[in-house]
Design a protein that fits this description.
With about 210 residues, the chain is α+β, with helices and mostly antiparallel strands. It has two domains: about 45 residues, no CATH class; about 160 residues. Helix content is about 50%, strand content about 25%. It is built from six helices and seven strands, in the order H-H-H-H-E-E-E-E-H-E-E-E-H.
């Protein structure tokens, strides 16, 4: 009996309880079936033989940066069209990988190379940075003239929002503020962050006038 035939037989027995056994919870069976199918797709494509767990999470982190950027970029386009080259117009920088030398704590940790995956939205005086690294996506607001200091200045200012990834049963699950990052919550939090970015830009213009 092949592995696929065995999987079908197990799932069929779970659904109908097997001979002489009572039926089981269908919601659990559906959840288990979906996870099993996702695993089989990854297994048959060879992904587990190529990538370790860390690689799977890092790949998901890159895709989350791209997803966040792709959600917000159309709003930037519409805003720029409406504002017609004012000081609130924005420039965008598509997600890209940058290797940085990060100094360790002397004398125990040497300097090491760290990969960050960033996207950026910038007005004349402020930048919204979406930074992915390892198992998290972080959102920063940084003065535009300081952004080239990269992680050094980002860590000084601190992240305003963090999407945290974890690997569970071979699948990457995302959280924000300890809550599951549902599609609705993802969109709402990204737009709240973008709205805050616009309001802070306006405040800076008022204070500078």
């Amino acid at each position: 009996m092949s592995g696929r035939e065995l999987a079908r037989k197990i799932l069929r027995n779970l659904t109908y309880g097997g001979e002489g056994q009572p039926p089981v919870r269908r919601d659990y069976v559906e959840q288990l079936t979906n996870k099993s199918k996702a695993f089989l797709r990854s297994y048959e494509s060879g992904i587990f033989s190529i990538f370790g767990e860390g690689d799977i999470v890092r790949d998901a982190t890159r895709r989350m940066v791209e997803r966040s950027f792709n959600l917000l970029q159309p709003y930037v386009v519409h805003l720029n069209d409406a504002l017609d080259a004012s000081q609130l117009c924005m420039a965008t920088t598509a997600p890209d990988e940058i290797l940085e030398s990060v100094e360790g704590e002397w004398p125990f940790k040497p300097t090491r190379e760290v990969s960050f995956y960033r996207a950026r939205f910038s007005t004349h005086n402020l930048s919204l940075i979406i930074r992915g690294s390892e198992d998290r996506v972080e959102f920063f607001l940084i003065p535009a003239e300081l952004v080239m200091r990269l992680s050094q200045v980002e860590d000084e200012y601190g992240a305003l929002m963090v999407y945290q990834a974890r690997l569970e049963s071979g699948m990457v699950e995302w959280e924000v503020e300890g809550k599951p990052l549902t599609d609705d919550r993802f969109e709402r939090y990204c737009l709240l962050m973008f709205d805050y970015f616009v309001k802070e830009t306006q405040s800076l213009l008022v204070r500078a006038s």
